[in-house]
Amino acid sequence: MKQKFTILFDLDGTLVDTAPDLMHAHNHVMKQFGYPTKSTKEIRNLVGQGAGALLGRSIWGQAKKEFGKVQDEKIKKEMVNEFIDFYGKNIVKESTLINGVKEFLIWSKEKNIAMAVCTNKQEHLAIDLLKKIGIYDFFEYVAGHNTFDYSKPDPRHLTSVVEILEGDLNKTLMIGDSETDANAAKEAGIPLILLENGYTEKNITEIHHNHLIKDFVNIEKIVLKYL
After folding, report:
1. Which residues have a Cβ under 8 Å from the Cβ of 214 and sit 6 or more positions away?
2. Are 2 and 152 in contact (CB under 8 A)?
3. In whole angstroms, what is the distance from residue 121 CA to residue 123 CA?
4. What residues act catalytically?
5. Complete DSSP assignment for 29-66
6. Do 170 and 190 touch, CB atoms closer than 8 A?
7. In angstroms, rounded to a whole number, what is the distance separating the alpha carbons of residues 109 and 115?
8. CB-neighbour burial class of residue 134 (10 A; exposed 0-12, middle 13-18, buried 19+)
9. Which residues on neighbouring strands pair with residue 115, listed in sequence order?
């Protein structure tokens, strides 16, 4: 059998603009526990490393290791559980597909490209979102934050999925929107297509990438170079 070409996709900010629904879940938790709420724009800068990191970075302006220093483990757990519960029940109220995504997925299927999602969202939430927004069936595998014992930026999050798909790292592309995706792809030796308005505080010039796109319109031209 001829080795298939593989594309790995991030989810939040790459395939789906999930920031509005994440913002509502975040603010629901913050109000409940007495912390300041945030705008959708601010949330875009905090997404990408899981629920604990999102809440921790929001409160302390630091990554999840700071959230880990919260003395009361019970409260910390309650906050994360409340976030996941509320978000799970309201996952596609305002989330929308990034422009051109559906058309590109259809094109990729026609080209016999294997596709998978590598996200730092909880696996069940990722699958639920993909199903409800109507693109789940395009993917052969969905790896979430809790699928393996590691997650992005650990390159094994990507390489393990390629292995599961019986793919070839030399015939694989990653499409993402943040330094978390970029660092994982770089370490895995996989070329990265970066969305320029990603869920990150960093400027695109600070993020490793091989190609830069505004959305998925005409992305086929880039992918054809690798096929």
Report:
1. 195, 196, 197
2. no
3. 6
4. 10
5. HHHHHT-----HHHHHTT-SS-HHHHHHHHHHSS-HHH
6. no
7. 8
8. exposed
9. 7
Domains and CATH numbers, the chain: 6-17+95-224 (3.40.50.1000), 19-89 (1.10.150)
pTM of the full structure: 0.90
Structure tokens at 197: 């308005």
**CA distance linking residue 89 with residue 92, whole number of Å:** 9
Tokens of 27: 């603010």
Q: What is the pLDDT along the chain (227 residues), one digit of tens a residue?
A: 456 899 999 999 999 999 999 999 989 988 998 888 888 888 887 776 666 667 766 765 544 444 455 556 777 788 888 988 999 999 999 999 999 999 999 999 999 999 999 999 999 999 999 999 999 999 999 999 999 999 999 999 999 999 999 999 999 999 999 999 999 999 999 999 999 999 988 999 999 999 999 999 999 999 999 99
Sheet holding 211-213, edge to edge: 141-143, 114-118, 6-9, 172-176, 192-195, 211-213
Residue with tokens 């959708």: 40
Is residue 7 a contact partner of residue 158, using CB atoms and an 8 Å limit? no
Tell me the C-alpha distance between 49 and 35, whole Å.
20
